[in-house]
Amino acid sequence: MLRDKLVHKVLRIPHALHVGVDRTGADIEAPTIVLIHGLARTHKVWNLALKDLPSSSRVIAVDLLGFGESPKPDWRSYNAEEQAISLHTTLRKCGVTGDIIIVGHSLGALVAIEYAKKYPARLKSLILCSTPLYKSEPRYVFNKFKLPDGETFYKSMLRNFREKPDFTKKLNYYARRAKFIDEDFVVDDKNMRSVVRSIEMAIENQSAFEWLIETKVPTSLVYGRLDPYVIKKYYKTLAKHNPNVAVYPIVAAHEINRSKPYADAVRSLLFAQNPEV
Question: Coiled coil located at which positions (predicted)?
């Protein structure tokens, strides 16, 4: 613990992430595909999608800070920037020097966007699944006309999750028992701090929408029509105003684990937009 704080907190050396999958590609010139999971998940959410990803590309799937087998320092803020820096450190450690394509799910999509902001040089494209986009709208409009804020429900739900950890853990436990969510979607004492801080620092406080409205990076946004965590109008706005952003609605909910529609969408986009992979 002391050494961890000295090396990473005092000296500010980024943590490296646990690499759960590092599959060699047949073509060394093909871009590396990097997979980033969502909140309270691990690299294992990509197991179904991995079966159909291009064999020509190297594929790397990581565990984000605070989850899976990656470090879980209690002093980290767990914002998207920290995660992106650790991802960059990890890719360098893995010897990735060529172009990369990042595929992110939920929280992982926000981390992918932050990576694109900080390290655009070799980023070929983004494929973002179930991205929880929230933007700040002028408060005076809602105050004047007493209209509900379009994000109020979503942000209050997230706030309840992080402010009531015992409730969140119980809800997660019973949802897993009832098979409403996957068995490996676990929120417990081991990762509760990471979950709480990730919700507040990465999901609630974000500028992803503002970046997407102006980005030049080819970006595909995939979302489920049954997803309760995304605001569909934001996706439509992005598709309308930025030609570099394409939106693909599919018949699915939020979770990507064992979701064939998401796996099919990711595979199709990789082949269609990057035929060399």
Answer: none
* Token reading at 254: 């939020």
Give the single-character DSSP code of 58: -
pLDDT band at 136 (very low <50, low <70, confident <90, very high): low
Both tokens of 138, joined, read: 């002028």
Helix axes 80-93, 107-118, angle to 10 degrees: 70
How buried is 135 (Cβ within 10 angstroms: 0-12 exposed, 13-18 middle, 19+ buried)? Answer: middle
**Confidence (pLDDT) at 179:** 84
Find the largest Cα–Cα distance for the chain: 60
Q: What is the pLDDT, as a whole number, of residue 203?
A: 94
Between CA 230 and CA 116 the distance in angstroms is: 21
Instruction: Give the angle 234-198-95 at the CA atoms, nearest 5°.
Output: 95
First to last CA, the chain: 42
